Write the structure tokens for this entry.
Amino acid sequence: MTWANFSEAELIASAGGDPWAINRSLQAGSPFQISRLAEAFHGAGRRTAEADHAFEDARKRFAAAWNHQQGGHPINDSAEVQRVTKSLGVQSEQLPKIGADLESIAAALADAQKQGDQEIALLDSELRGLDRIMTAINQDLTLDLPAAEHDKLEKLKQAVHAQAVDDVRDAVKQMNAIRNAYSDTLRKSMSALHNDGYDPPKAVDDWIESPLRRGEVRDLGPIAGTGGIPGIPGIGAADLGEVVEVPGQPGKYLAIFGDSFSGNKVGEGEHYRSVAVPVTFDADGRPHFGAPLTGAKDSGRELFPMPAEAVKAGVNDTLPAGTITLGDKTYMMVTGTQGDLKPVASWLVEVNGDPGKGWAMVPGSYRAAGDAPTQVSGYKGSDGKVYIAADSFDRSRGVTMYRADPGNVFDRSTWQPWNGSDWGKPGQQAVQVTPNRYGELSFREIGGKPVLSGFNVDAHQGSIEVRVGTSPTEMFGANAPTTLVAQNGDPAAPKFIPQPYGGYILPGSTLDDLKLFGSQWNTLKDANGVPFGAPYNTREFQLNPYH
């Protein structure tokens, strides 16, 4: 789409998502080819009444949604059926079931494509209308008008632009809902296909949006904050959202968000300096948030009560700055800031299942910003040692590494720094292991390998990336391949998301199916110098990282 008065890139950035890209992804599938293959399987083997009914039901849904665009058909249906028949042997009754499952996928994809096209057509129509209004306003602004009339037109112009952003944001929500509904059917049908003994070839995978291949990333859209689905009850703008399991309560999770607001943008409504939210995950790994367990600023129920040292130092905001997981205990770093998120000090708190009472500072863990890292992430490795990646909350330095004993993690004076060749003595200077500056970090052991996710300030003008290493001290070497998750440098390149950051690895992630939370904050200002303040959200990503 081209307009006289709107920029697609700016609308996407302001709305926090690209509905056109989501639709292009859906339209890339080929429901006709899937349906033809389904029919070939359905006609083979020993059919049952149940399989016939399932197939015919799916066929009707496919016929109602299909747009009759056939496309190419680069697979021989008969040969594919023969291949699977040979592999299944006497289990020919499975063939019609495979056909029914494939037809269900074809129907769901065709329906998603139909809904997607309708949603995009509606959006384009709305934007064309707003573009015409904007043109008329601009023409009127060239006239010699009284100052009051001129101001009215400028305000109307801003309102029209805001409506355009809202329309794109609503379309993102709808397109994500359409895609998620298709993904639900796809997951269930693919599971049934595998249970029936059918592993689709690459051509079929391409038709149905296959499971992620090595190095591929899928942006699942905002899940909290501006435009978030399902969102947090009572909170319209939020970022970060690192998920921690409550020690001693397996399966109970809390998401810890940073500065959050009851309105839909930064600064709108009640301000939570940080907030703990209960979260569960469904079978597809999608989060569902409960009501906040902690209160807004000055409510007496804040997540991070401010220690006396921080008050004396002039701290006016308290924010989560990473966790160190030990299995039986989890420590979270809190960074106290002032002004424009300038770190003043940091301290540790111990995670528990009652955040409403506040997580108080671990005695002795307070450090001024210049004396110790203000952002960390770490884990207890399979060798029994704790490995910690660290940097600065203001993203002014590279990553340093530390090692600690599990029983002394809370005592930062016992951490051993990595000096480039060995673990040094506590108190010695740590060597930065990367020349690039970093921000948010998430360091975990997955499948026996160290995995580091986080925000690389200097790559792609800011990017979220994941590295899988062979040892904790070699996360930035040749043996730690990097997967780019999101980048801010090139709007025309894949994985572009304006102003991304974060990258917290979610519980349950594997080396082949890793999920994480990233964030986005539009810090741009309008013509009057007022920050847009939105989108300000947390997004979910799914990837199969290089390793």
